Amino acid sequence: MIRIIMIYDQVQAGQGTKDDRMVPLNATKEVIGPAVMMKPYLKEMDAKVIATLIAGTGTYEANSDEVGRKMCAMVKKLNADVVICGPSFNYHDYSAMCAEIADRIQQDTKIPAFAAMADENADVIDHYKDKITIVKTPKKGEGGLNEALKNICRTAKELAENTEK
Questions:
Q1: Proportion of the chain in helix, strand, coil states, percent, rounded to 5
Q2: How many Å apart are CA 15 and CA 60, to the nearest integer?
Q3: Long-range contacts formed by 138-147: CB under 8 A, 24+ apart
Q4: pLDDT-based confidence at 140, cuts 50/70/90?
Q5: What is the dihedral of CA 116, 37, 39, 45, to 10 degrees?
Q6: How confident is the model at residue 153 (pLDDT cuts 50, 70, 90)?
Q7: Which of 33, 46, 62, 69 could disulfide-pair with 12, CB 3.0 to 4.6 Å?
Q8: DSSP code of 81?
């Protein structure tokens, strides 16, 4: 069984709106947000979400080093096989947070991590495309979400299976 950790902002976690940026770092073992829609694809791949880490985009921006360090510690403690940051769709601040955290997790923990975002985040994609895996998603409300979620699950499985612990 592949053990996955999701990383969400306050909106995807259902803990606030885009204006509620200062949601503190927290975690849940419940499957929430886009991971609910991913359940059938994860089941096909013998994978499950073991936890979701949540931080408001403002909280992350104000304390990126501390939040990133704590997320890395949680990822290690929970013994994840792979970390999915997002999907952040076309939300720029969340996409930047996802890319930075994925990069840090890979560097600090050696656990594979990747980000999922829409093409509208071209500057983030350009900056991180050579550092992390980025799975493309539609922007929020656009068609193609189910295919993007399948691709996210496939990528998680591939990365988890190609990493020696």
A1: 45, 20, 35
A2: 15
A3: 138/89, 139/89, 139/90, 140/89, 140/90, 140/91, 142/118, 145/37, 146/37
A4: confident
A5: -50
A6: very high
A7: 33
A8: S
Q: 164 falls in which pLDDT band (50, 70, 90)?
A: low
For residue 37, what are its two tokens? 């829609």
Cα-atom radius of gyration of the chain, to the nearest Å?
A: 14
What pLDDT was estimated at residue 5? 98
List of residues 6+ apart from 101 with CB closer than 8 A: 7, 60, 68, 71, 85, 113, 115
Looking up tokens 């922007």 gives: 139
- Tokens 């053990």 -> residue: 3
CA angle 133, 136, 142 (to 5 degrees): 160
At 70, phi and psi to the nearest 5?
-65, -40
Query: CA angle, 131 as apex, 130 and 134 as ends, to 5°?
Result: 80
Classified as helix, coil or strand, 31 is coil
pLDDT at residue 142, as a whole number: 87
Task: Convert the pLDDT of each residue in 24-58 to its tens digit.
Answer: 999 999 999 999 999 999 999 999 999 999 999 99
